[in-house]
Amino acid sequence: MTTEDIKVLDDILSSHDYNPSLVIAVMQDIQRYYRYLPEESLTYISQKLGLPEAKIYGVATFYENFSLDAKGKYVIKICDGTACHVRNSVPILEEMRKILGLSDSKHTTDDGLFTVETVSCLGACGLAPACTVNDEVYPAMTPEKARELIKKLKEAEGV
Amino acid sequence: MSRIRTRDELNQKRKEYLKALQAQSKQILVCGGTGCVAGGSLKIYAKLNEILKEKNIPCALKIGHEIEENSVGLKKSGCHGFCEKGPLIRIDPLGILYTKVKVEDCEEIVEKTIIGNEVVERLLYKDSQGKAYENQDSIPFYKNQTRVALEHCGKLNAESISEYIAEGGYQAVAKALFDMTPEEIIEEITESSLRGRGGGGFPTGRKWAQVLRQDVEEKYVVCNGDEGDPGAFMDRSMMEGDPHKVIEGMLIAGIATKAHTGYIYVRAEYPLAVERLKIAIEKATDRGLLGKNILNSGFDFVIHISQGAGAFVCGEGSALTSSIEGNRGMPRVKPPRTVEHGLFDKPTVLNNVETFCNIAPIINNGAQWYKTLGPEGNHGTKAFALTGNVVNTGLIEVPMGTKLREVIFDIGGGVSGGEFKGVQIGGPSGGCLCLNEEENHLDLNMDFDSLKKVGAMIGSGGLVVMNEHTCMVEVARFFMQFTQNESCGKCVPCREGTKRMLELLTDITEGRGTLQHIEMLEELADTISNTALCGLGKTAASPVVSTLKYFRDEYISHVVNHKCPAGQCKALVNLVIDSDKCKGCTKCARMCPVSAISGELKKAHVIDVEKCIKCGTCIDGCKFGAIRYE
Amino acid sequence: MAKYMIVDGIRVEFTDERNVLQVVQKAGIHLPTFCYYTELSIYGACRMCMVEDSRGSVMAACSTPPRDKMEIRTNTSRLHDYRKMILELLLASHCRDCTICEKDGRCRLQMLATRFGLNQVRFKDTRPEMPIDDSSIAIIRNPGKCILCGDCVRMCNEVQHVGAIDFAYRGSNAIVTPAFGRTLAQTDCVHCGQCAAVCPTAAIVVKSDLKNVWKALYAPNTRTVVQVAPAVRVALGEEFGLKPGDNSIGKIFTALRMCGFNTVFDTSFAADLTIMEESKELVEKLKKGDTQMPLFTSCCPGWIKFVETKHPDLMPYVSTCKSPMEMFGAVIKDYYKKADEESGLKTVSVAVMPCSAKKAEAARDEFKTNGVPDVDYVITTTELIKMIRELGIQFNEIEPSAPDMPFSISSGAGMIFGTTGGVTEAALRRVAENSQYAMKEIEYSGVRGFDGVKSAYVTLGDTALRIAVVSGLGNADELIKKIKSGEEHFDFVEVMACPGGCVSGAGQPHAYVENKKKRAAGLYTTDKSALVKRSNDNPVVMHMYETGVLKNRAHELLHVHYHTCDKK
Which chain C residues are Cβ-neighbours of B345 within 8 angstroms? Predict the structure, then answer.
């Protein structure tokens, strides 16, 4: 880790008073900064919070939102809650994966631009089927709209 | 903002703010709920603000000390509930609701309605017969509702504490602090017979009494906002639309149980709710309604927000407190119960968002008023997220005991896309209801006890309507997949049992099922329901049990006749080309990855069912809609 | 009126039992469990101990407090079905290579499957392949055999404060693992093996060195010397029908000779050496007035590793004495050196220990001479049981025998090393005046007993020593915090990594706490009948110092300088 990294982590830790019971909030901040949880960062906070690494690893892998792998610049979450499922969310997921060459086991594109994952419910059931791109909600999706969305995002990136 | 130091000051401020609100000639409420925001409501809000400025119409974005006569109030409100028709705008005092508003409509709205007191006809809600409704409250979707927990949602600026105070906010706190003892507060709540809205339906008053009884200095009030049920968003709307009401409910719980610290546990998937709650807590603290010596009563109370990180099981009490403490969210054995050893091992009041939203109204209006709503033992109202194959999806609140038929047909406007088949209520822990020769659940009263009798539960209030094209085995499989994915993995029956149930259900939907599969599903369901460690595990099999009970024919049809009556299970249906519609363009034959389609140019094509892998590529590709599942 | 419960129609009185499970036990019924240990927190995950009350509610006995007049049944038809289903579910995800499994015959999953007559697994075989982690010098983890009862996790975290392993992931993907999927060797594991001691299956086992030991026994030109630790004698017999605590050391010596060992010794003898050195160190420390921090004992390798990883700043306060096993290891190799050179024989030194951490200790560089370990192989009590079984030795029928010369006498003080408080009591006997009264005073000072933390004042001449006896690393960790903060002050602190000391070691046959206590009691009984009570009364020991191998060489052979002291 660079001194820059250590400063980032120290700032995050001190904003949570080095309180071990706030380890989830600490990890959320780390993930917000790096877009994932780098292993060294967890080792570092383990020492600073006085928690075993195995415990921190256990917490990090328990919760769906934490990722130990680097995520794409655009994280696309496709809602597969009941309402979205009933209104055909699966074809949207399949379409996105098809376009981006992703699968059930591969969530992030090689260029590090896109991550596609499902979420059990965004609570935007009135807009079903819905998806989010970096927390911005896109309502009433169709495979067609999904294609356009990816196209738009790719264009914005100049690829 | 100045601190409100006493009860008198609170009353005085209320008058001031009310006067300021009344001074506004019109109020435009732009829905700022997640649904409408996604539909572009924030752009509409900005545009309206811009137009009002251009036209030199005095516009009040918030109410302060200067009262500007005849100004127009423009505010972002919480969710109006009618998400299907969003973005929504309500204009008071006319009570007009505009639906599916676009940025381009703003000019006309200001011109006609704000300045001219006219209605923009085309933006009104129209029912299936084409009848337009000018007044929001006369729209069947709203007319048939009774809003208590949601009373302010969509009517107040969700980020303004002043408006909340103007509407009588924090009066219940003042009453609880100065006119009542903790015992009297609990007596009032007990008398109202309020039961927890999070699923279990445990009497709230009794829970509080148990916490008050604990002779421990440190106690906690925890608000469960981990609304993880797929298909539910009531709590989210309340946190986003009326955050102060949640805070007020928690404060009263604190006063009643002598606790001084509160935590709100919010799902990470609800960033807007977190933001609104943060603003609300900040403002309440600035105004002295949270913190030390509230209203000079000597009572202290602080609230922290704890964000979830994506685990449905954290909706379970002990898993939730475990998560706040920074651990894996795994439920623990009980006893000890949360009321004795909850958060940080201290006595803890744990209620969900909706329950807390009912507290202030009960304290303000009294238990007797509350008891006029709903049937004996199930008093009050319940919010539901009405979704699925229903015309009007959205957020609703009705008295307990309202018939399912009224909810789906009067409020929901009926089933969309086909005939009514059933509803799934209560999320992954709930069950399916149906309408057939033996059972008529449409006329079932929706309350804790009646639903329990038929093997379903109110849960947190997700209500998913399903039409005839929905395969109930697939619905059961969907929920089992969810539960299996969300199982914490601690106890054997839930961890291993749900995995095996999913395996069996997948076999059935993919055409490999046998009668033995059904038998094993029942055996597993019995074991899991009776031996799982926590409430979530114990109810994990409910969707399977209830579909097996009410839709057994469908299961039998899958495993004996190898047919999916709803035509949803791909493995059990065949793709066919309608020879009347097929133009013989050959596109499908070219697209088919396994060359299962043949035919001559300009002549109807056929699919070889032996070769076909039912991928559906041909359906998507056919421009004439000639290919379908059969 | 005494409180009572009706268990399967039998009236059972109860007082302060913490749960229904214990009351049921009083009725003479052992409910099946995987995740219940009285010394661990109640986890309630296996759901095997379900009982049914008179209203038909089903509940886990381990986590239900008993209520007066409560009526339960333990064997209804439903319960039978549920237990069978749970077992079937567990087996569906579990390795089924029973006959070649390390734990065959001692695996609780296997035993319960047999007990409930499970004869089929109807579910699909979807077991993922999971690599075996044999990176550790003392412990092997086989995740494919893990049933996720969490016993090891709670042991490692709650009881030992080591935190080398924990749960990761969730639901059916949940596993027990070191952080980031690393191997056990990459963690702070102290090799105490308590995880293996509580593991109901073979998901965590102590690594076996039997292959090497057999090889040495059959190798030509080899002198095989074996030493047996104090705690082994009161536990080994349990596997051959003896009661826990019955001292079978004589039979063990005979059995070892039958296995082919040329020379057999008792580690208790080396414990006497330890006492001579450690008490000297204590007295010198006190004399110097260096009393701010206590002298910590150094017999337990799990404890040493724990200090090295978690409290390295305390290493200077840990006694420089080698453990009895390593003292003996050095002495044995030194003693036979000349004879070996003359005869062309090679001495292979084996130790039978109740412990897994001893395997790691023997492999440390500090205990090697010219690259060769002083103790070549360490085998556990359980491994020796396997040797005895393999050779068909009828343990109950063989005659006892005595250890070999010249190290053939041990004191009672050396024998009680096998239980918590033993080292302290032995050291006190050494430094206190020689009288019956002093012996009694020490016995009743509070150093005995199975409690995790004991403390006592002992008068030594005109000074009063403050002493702490700790077993279980979590207890040690807590005590260290108090010492560091100044809340507590001690002159001498004995630490044993395993709760209860070596009688509870991971190399011992599986036992619950009641039987571990009986083992400890067995050691005190042995001490009572010992002719020599104090280490300094052991004539062999005194002879060694005066004219034997230790003359002027005590420091060289009996003390160690841990490399971890050098860092920083």
Answer: none
Residues B366 and B239 in one domain: yes
**B305 chain-A contacts, CB cut-off 8 A:** none
| Cα gap A57→B445, rounded to integer Å | 47
- Sketch the domain layout of chain C as residue ranges: 3-75, 88-206, 212-565
If asked whether residues B404 and B429 sit together in one domain, one would say yes
Considering the domain C88-206, what is its CATH architecture? Answer: 2-Layer Sandwich (3.30)
Residues B457 and B489 in one domain: no
Is residue B579 within 8 A of residue B603, CB to CB? The reply is no
In degrees, rounded to 5, the angle at the alpha carbon of residue B483 between the alpha carbons of residues B482 and B488 is: 120
Task: Say if C401 is an interface residue toward chain A (CB within 8 Å).
Answer: no
Identify the pLDDT of residue B86.
Answer: 82
- List, for residues B474-496, the tens digit of each pLDDT value: 999 999 999 999 999 999 999 99
SS (H, E, C) C122-150: CCCCCCCCCCCECCCCCEEECHHHCCCCC
B580 shares its domain with B550: no
DSSP structural state of residue C372: E
Q: Residue B67 pLDDT > 70, yes or no?
A: no
Q: Reply yes or no on whether the pLDDT at C103 is more than 50.
A: yes
When pLDDT is cut at 50, 70 and 90, the band that residue B65 belongs to is low
- What three-state secondary structure class fits A10? helix
Q: Which of B50, B32, B51 is nearest to B42 (CA)?
A: B32
Q: What is the pLDDT of residue C362?
A: 97
Under 8 Å between Cβ of B583 and B567: no
The verdict on A135 touching B (C-beta cutoff 8 Å) is yes
One-letter identity of residue B281: I
Q: Does the structural domain C212-565 have CATH classification 3.90.550.10? A: no
Q: Where are the alpha helices (DSSP H) in A79-132?
A: 82-86, 90-100
Residues C422-476 pLDDT 10s: 999 999 998 887 777 777 888 878 889 999 999 998 887 778 889 999 999 999 9
Interface predicted TM-score (ipTM): 0.91
**What distance in Å separates the CA atoms of residue C506 and residue C176, rounded to the nearest whole number?**
19
Report yes or no on B375 lying in a domain.
Answer: no
Handedness of CA C258, C261, C265, C267 (dihedral sign): negative
Whether residue C169 and residue B489 make contact (CB cut-off 8 A), yes or no, is yes
Q: How far apart are CA C523 and CA C244, in angstroms?
A: 11
Q: What would the pLDDT profile of B315-324 be if each residue is shown by its tens digit?
A: 899 999 999 9
What does each C-alpha distance from A152 to A148, A157, B101 come to in angstroms?
Answer: 6, 9, 24
Q: CATH number for the domain including B412?
A: 3.10.20.600
Neighbours of chain A (3+ CB pairs under 8 A): B, C
Give the chain C residue nearest A54 (alpha carbons): C179
Q: Quick check: bond before B93 cis, omega within 30?
A: yes
- What mean pLDDT comes out for the span C159-165? 97
* Domain membership of residue B270 as a residue range: 169-370
Burial call B192-217: b when 16+ CB within 10 Å, e when fewer:
bbbbbbbbebebbbebbbbbbebeee
**Residue of A85, A87, A94, A117 for testing the chain B interface, max B β-carbons within 10 Å:** A85
The pTM score is 0.92
Per-residue pLDDT at C568: 43
Q: Please give the CATH number for the structural domain made up of C3-75.
A: 3.10.20.740
Find the mean pLDDT for residues C205-230. Answer: 97
Mean pLDDT of chain C: 94
Q: Which residues contact A106 (CB under 8 A, 6 or more apart)?
A: none
Last residue of a domain, one of B415, B444, B467: B467
For residue A108, what is the DSSP state? Answer: B
Angle formed by the axes of helices C301-310 and C473-485, nearest 10°: 50
Q: What is the mean pLDDT of chain B?
A: 91
Assigned token pair, B399: 């008295």
User: β-strand B261-266 against B302-307: which pairing, if any?
Assistant: parallel
